[in-house]
Amino acid sequence: MDKAKITGLTGNFLRVVARNRRLFAVPGMIRAFRRIAAEARGEVAAEVSSAHELTAAQRSELTAALKTVAGKDVAVNLTVDPTLLGGMVVKMGSRQIDTSLKTKLASLKLALKEVG
């Protein structure tokens, strides 16, 4: 901790975790802390995967739409997944909204197999 210049409460916390041989659990602890802190701020996290990079206007429109749905502030984490072909996948809490072209084509393929 001294070499990394980690002091105070954080340093003490990491020393206790190391002493109890639980350093492997630190990433999970950080994720849980961030989730709890976001809830305390009244914020919800949303994971958004889109087929291409969104423009600033699209990002702000998406954030506003998600805020309306959630009724809270939304922290949006955007990623680009070219395999989606088009559209996007939004994961917010236990909800998932999949408007990707990849999923629509897969469901159409399944429907065509059932008919023929």
- Output mean pLDDT: 90
Assembly level: single chain
DSSP summary, beta strand count: 4
The gyration radius over C-alpha positions equals 20 Å
Number of helices: 4
The biggest sheet, with number of strands, parallel, antiparallel or mixed sense and barrel status, is: 4 strands, mixed
Helix content: 40-55%
Q: Which runs of at least 5 residues are low in confidence (pLDDT < 50)? A: none
The total tally of domains equals 2
Counting helices, strands and paired strands, the structural category is: alpha+beta
Terminal-residue CA separation? 66 Å
Q: What is the N-to-C succession of helices and strands?
A: HHEHEEEH
| Strand order, largest beta sheet | 2-1-3-4
Q: What coarse outline follows from CA principal-axis ratios? A: elongated
**Beta-strand residue fraction:** 15-25%
Describe this structure in words.
There is one protein chain. The model has no long low-confidence stretch (mean pLDDT about 90). The protein is of the alpha+beta class. It is built from four helices and four strands. The chain folds into two domains: about 40 residues, no CATH class; about 80 residues. The termini are far apart.
Helix-strand layout with pairing:
Layout: H1 8-19, H2 26-40, E1 43-50, H3 56-70, E2 73-80, E3 88-92, E4 95-98, H4 101-115
Parallel strand pairs: 1-2
Antiparallel strand pairs: 1-3, 3-4
